[in-house]
Amino acid sequence: MTAQVKNQSASAWLMLVSRTLLFSFFQSLFAFALILAGRFTSWQDSARWWPVGVFLANVIGVVLLIRLYKKESARYQDIFKFHKKTIKSDLLALLLIFPLIGALGFFPNLLLGRWLFGDSLIALRMFIQPLPLWATIIAVVLFPVSQGFAELPVYFAYVMPRIEKQTGSGWAAVALSGLFLSIQHAFAPLVFDYRFILWRGLMFLPFALAVGFLLKWRPRLLPYLAIVHILMDFSLTPYFLGA
């Protein structure tokens, strides 16, 4: 195995856990800042800042992807190219699969919340809490937009094909990428309540695996799914504003 291949192998596994590590780092940083400001009463105080932490993690993730693709003589922005020759068939495939993807993104969230808390609104109130105006702007604008450029590209454009190449198993690559995409949510924010951890860690597992299988079958759907992802995260806007 050449040095370049070894570096690519290590980079794929590091990127697999990078977002989870970054989410934890930024929440710890917010907790430390609150301690210095004399406004820290519990770890929960740092949890409300998760949209800012995710946005910062997204920025770092995009920078890392740009550098990693450049090392492979490729371009990060190329993964967002629309293929003109297949745009009609790609849109048709997306329209056909969209109801399933939407259901998998919505119902596990609701059902897990009811099962674990008795009322999904309890989990939602723990998840979205009041923020100052500047942080609310990040939550409703920069957070959702940056998600489209970072989350799916990290797990399914960069990590998944490289793990498949290393393991020789496309299904293992889909499963690992989808699993880590789902689990990362338990760290955004990290709240030390087992019900909340289960809710956040599992709520997107069916959605993540479905998207992984879809992108393994047709990788060129990534730019369309990135747009869908942005719109899904924009749906949180009323809750942030309400908080």
How would you describe this structure to a colleague?
The chain is mostly helical and 243 residues long. It has one domain (3-74, 84-242). Helices cover 78% and strands 0% of the residues. The chain is built from eleven helices and no strands. Helix 6 (133-167) packs antiparallel against helix 10.
- C-alpha Rg, in Å? 18 Å
Percent helix, as a range, is: over 70%
Q: Shape from CA axes? A: globular
Question: Low-confidence parts lasting 5 or more residues at pLDDT below 50?
Answer: none
Strand percentage lies at under 5%
Number of E-state strands: 0
Number of domain units: 1
Order of helices and strands: HHHHHHHHHHH
Structural class, from secondary structure content?
A: mainly alpha
Task: Count every helix, treating DSSP H or I runs of 4 or more residues as helices.
Answer: 11
Mean pLDDT: 94
The biggest sheet, with number of strands, parallel, antiparallel or mixed sense and barrel status, is:
none
Q: How far from one another are the termini?
A: 53 Å
